[in-house]
Design brief:
single chain, about 400 residues, 3-stranded antiparallel β-sheet
């Protein structure tokens, strides 16, 4: 087996063990695994059995304390231990694969949570997360990266003080949709998303091969959602998904050196970001009006590197305006600062940008425009900091 396949097998077995350790099936599953190890790697069997017992004690304590971080740590420890065993004892791999397929063994899927079904919507904090360029990885690497992403999100939620029973996670293949009930502190969550998640991904990237680097897009939103037998639905979830998938955020992800790019909805900005909560850097957020299938949405994107304007420019025509884009009025007052702010008029902004592009093409073909034309028309864009063109 190649390293990627060993990593995948170790991850699946570790997840199966952690899933079962606090259930009634654990004694049977533990016995099967120890017997397998005694046959295949007898010198390691007793040591691994002791480690399993210690891991179960830690998980039991963590479950009582609602400590998601310890659960992630235990799974990471088991995954690392199993990977070392597999590399040292190649004959163990087929037996572990057969162990997962045995009746009573669980696979690497998380335990199913009971979903509250009803037609009355409730208010949730919404966290939409996506792995960039996920399709470029082969299947074994996708599984490894998904597992790491889940670890990172669980650690982030734990750092924000989010109790496990306040969380619903819906898997999206290359990411996830996390719904958090009103017991969650939105300022605390946003602080953890901006600090702890990037630290986790940066730590992963520092140890991972170049072919296993992660970059992550995140959207934080809030709104109403309703559960049915198949999952969750609601306009707020649709908006979060469209913000997450928008070409502006993708473009910023491609050019940014940061491993995590974060965008928040206007409601999150107005209720949290602009109030200068600790570890929420209001000055690095910039807003942009995005055109989506459902209309125009205002997003506030964390842009400490100042790369958003370039991302907006490459995303045209999807991005219709960025705050501070203005167009000068006609006549002699055009140079006197009589500017019409169209930051909240996306349809006008789109038309203005298209008109400016058309004039640029005309001037390129015909040469410099007559002076009297410049007196009547002058397009000006501003980033709010005094620069203009």
């Amino acid at each position: 087996m190649v390293d990627a396949e060993l990593e995948l097998l170790a991850a699946r077995v570790a997840s199966a063990l952690v899933t079962s350790m606090t259930t009634d099936e654990w004694p049977t599953l533990r016995t099967r695994l120890v017997q397998l190890l005694e046959r295949t790697v007898p010198r390691q069997a007793a040591l691994v059995a002791d480690e399993l017992d210690e891991a179960r004690r830690d998980l039991t304590t963590a479950a009582a304390a609602r400590d998601a971080a310890t659960t992630s740590d235990v799974e990471a420890m088991l995954r690392h231990r199993l990977r070392r065993l597999l590399r040292a004892e190649g004959e163990l791999a087929p037996d572990l694969g057969a162990f997962l397929a045995e009746p009573g063994a669980v696979d690497d899927r998380a335990p199913t949570r009971a979903i509250r079904i009803g037609h009355a919507p409730s208010h949730y904090v919404i966290l939409a997360v996506d792995l960039a360029r996920f399709a470029a990885y082969d299947t074994p690497m996708q599984v490894i990266l998904r597992r790491s992403l889940y670890d990172g999100v669980h650690q982030t939620l734990a750092a924000a003080g989010v109790p496990p029973d306040a969380t619903q996670i819906e898997d999206r293949g290359d990411g996830m949709l996390v719904l958090l009930n009103d017991a969650v502190s939105l300022p605390g969550l946003l602080s953890a998303v901006l600090r702890d998640l990037p630290e986790f991904v940066a730590s992963w990237n520092s140890l991972a091969a170049s072919s296993a680097q992660m970059k992550v897009r995140v959207v934080v939103h809030q709104g109403l959602a309703v559960a049915d037998a198949h999952g969750w639905t609601g306009a707020a979830l649709n908006d979060a998904a469209r913000l997450l998938d928008h070409s502006v955020l993708r473009g910023l992800m491609n050019t940014s050196r940061n491993p995590v790019v974060v965008s928040v909805s206007d409601s999150v900005y107005q209720s949290v970001v602009r109030h200068h909560y600790p570890r929420v850097p209001v000055d690095s957020f910039r807003d942009v009006v995005l055109t989506t299938k459902s209309g125009h949405i205002t997003a506030w994107i964390n842009d400490p590197e100042g790369l958003l304007e370039k991302a907006v420019a490459t995303a045209v025509p999807q991005a219709t305006a960025i705050r501070g884009y203005v167009v000068a009025g006609d006549g002699p007052d055009a140079d006197g600062g009589a500017l019409l702010d169209i930051s909240d008029r996306p349809e006008v902004a789109a038309a203005t940008r298209a008109m400016g592009s058309a004039f640029d093409r005309i001037f390129q073909a015909l040469g410099p425009p007559p002076e009297d034309l410049l007196m009547r028309y002058r397009a000006v864009t501003s980033d709010g900091g005094g620069s203009a063109r």
